[in-house]
Every structure is written in structure tokens, then in C-alpha cells.
């Protein structure tokens, strides 16, 4: 476990490191047979847009993890959680979820929500371990070739 969980909003100057983190995350998914992402999505332009909108957060030292956060209907929505392969298995993703649950609770939000692909078993395991509940299975209209997506929620009140 990491003793101190550093976090901050990503800045444009972080884009080269984030692009490398994204490439590493895409490699991890491809090697594990996870079809949620592909070489075209997400891409550096996706990251740049998230930075410009102040939605992308960096966690850990040396940009080893990142997540995009949005707010809708009093729910913190989590997108594109990436943890570098060098940090895999050290609890960083679990710590990020714990931190976000605490942040959402401190802001009196109703809960957290994340969507993942049916092939992303590591993410499903992480979410279930953190007490997120599977609430919906659906096909994304523009991504039906990727099969079912699952929506997980963590209720706070």
C-alpha cells in the first residue's frame, strides 16, 4: 500500500506523461483481452479535453494513475481509470476509489457511478471489492461490437 495518496488536477504540461500512461493502460487491456478501449479511444485528444475542462486527476507519484471525474444528478461519475502496469497489484486503484468515496461523502453527493465493459474483469473485481453494486447491463449505441457494458453504483445516502 502507498503511505500517502498524492493527487492533483492534471495540467497541459502533464500531457506527455499521461499519453504514456494511456498507452500503457491500452497495452494492459489488449494483453488481458479487454475490449473496452481501442487504439482510437481514448486518445491524447480525449485527455487534452479532460485537462481543459479540469476533469482529469492524477494520483500517486510520477503520474502513475489518473481518472476523469464528472458530476451529474448529484452523482460523481468516474471515467477512464488508468493505473500504470508498474503499480499494478499495489492497491493504488483501491485507494483511489476509497478517496473518491470519501470526497463524494464530504460533498454530500448521493453516490458514485462507473461503467465498464463485460471483458474488464479486473475492474469488475475492483468495484465489487469496494462495495459498488452492479445496477445495469446495456449496449452502447456507438460501440455494440464491444458487447455488454455494466454500470456500477456506490450509494451514499
Automatic annotation (TrEMBL):
Coiled coil: none annotated. It holds the Pfam family Acetyltransf_1. Transmembrane segments: none annotated. Residues 5-157 form the N-acetyltransferase domain. PROSITE patterns: GNAT. One of its GO terms (molecular function) is acyltransferase activity, transferring groups other than amino-acyl groups. This is N-acetyltransferase domain-containing protein. It comes from Levilactobacillus paucivorans.
